[in-house]
Design a protein that fits this description.
single chain, about 110 residues, alpha/beta, Rossmann fold, five-stranded parallel beta sheet, two-stranded antiparallel sheet, 5 helices, 7 strands, globular
């Protein structure tokens, strides 16, 4: 699977990227803020978006709304535990929500399920 990774923390991004590659998938593009995320979504050929909900310049929910139905599989990454956010993400078509910190096994399961 080709994965677009949108995460603002460089250490977390690197950790996720290493795990994804260990699983046999490929991170084909990365973004660390809202503006980069919009550009990468428009210009990258990916199967899955791994999307941090809180990023500089905006948030993951705004990114999803910006594109309407972007017709891609989305896995949300968040440290927030709020039912309201979960409901909104599911309503917008997010396939899976990972809570930080998450394990290798949880990431692998989420990717397999989407």
């Amino acid at each position: 699977m080709n994965i677009l990774l949108i995460e603002d923390n460089s250490y977390t991004r690197l950790t996720i990227k290493v795990a994804i590659e260990k699983m046999g998938h490929k991170v084909i593009a990365e973004a660390e803020n809202f503006e980069e995320a919009i550009e990468k979504i428009n210009n990258s050929d990916y199967d899955i978006i791994l999307l941090d909900i809180l990023i500089p310049g905006g948030n993951g929910i705004d990114i999803i709304k910006h594109f309407g139905n972007i017709n891609k599989k989305i896995i949300a990454i968040t440290a927030l535990e709020q039912d309201l956010i979960d409901k909104e993400l599911k309503k917008l078509g997010v396939k899976s929500i990972l809570r930080k910190p998450f394990s290798y096994d949880e990431l692998e399961k989420a990717i397999k399920e989407v």
